[in-house]
Input
Amino acid sequence: MKNREHTLKYFLIGLISAIIGAAIVLSCFYAFYLLPAQTKAAKSSSASAGITKVVNLTGSSTSTATAAYKKVKKAVVTVENYQKPTTESSDYFSQWFGSSSSSSSSSSSDTVQLAAEGTGLIYESDDGYAYIVTNNHVISGANELQVLMSDGTKVKAKLIGKNATKDIAVLKISMTKVTTATFVNSSNVQPGQQVLAIGSPLGSDYASSLTSGIVSATDRQISDDPIKLTAIQTDVALNPGNSGGPLINMAGEVIGINSMKINSTENGSESVEGMSFSIPSNTVVATIKSIVNAASGN
Output
């Protein structure tokens, strides 16, 4: 009987010791491992939540492209080409897309009608006149020229002169308060550079349309009688009516005048996308000077 009591006593002591030891081990495990891990996780979660909640936005942001567009937009105009209707109507530059043309009458008349629309750029203002550069093929065959300003004002324009080889024409309008654009050195243009085009694709209904892309090449040789020049190639979307509009960099500076694009392969078997061409600003400026000098007799 006494031995049984001793055995039970030792059993209880061992059981209690085991329970106490397990409690001590679990307490240490919680205190030195679980609790620090939970605290670290809580801090990490709190920090992440704090970062995602920082949404104090004040004012508004304007993209570089938007700023560049606004800088040039008011200097871009729609050039309207009015002609006397004839029995035959053809456009040599249709293969390049040239300008947006309307249908012609089958009978002759002294009344001029809108034959085509293109784009122009105001580059200078002097002594009550504003001067506009556009493509020669935009004004080709015109009996009368009118310019639609960015604010909707329409004025008659006078042709100062043209250069078919460089596909450049210079117009003059009687207007004092205008916005002019700035030409920059086109020799600094590089492939991969982001560019924007502003114009009137499909005519004045879509005036001041903006498209974007990159420079594909800077020295493409264009030789298609009468045009012979070195052009900037881009993947900017151009459509009928964009001709004569500016190609600008992201600073809102003019690096070229949009002139043409390739729509299909030479035999017409395949359509072509993303091959547009602009006359470099250096060529444009030199051609403008020669046209103005010739018109003034210098």
Confidence is low (pLDDT under 50) at residues 41-53, 55-61, 102-108. The longest helix spans residues 2-52. The longest strand covers residues 209-224. The two ends are 139 Å apart (CA to CA).
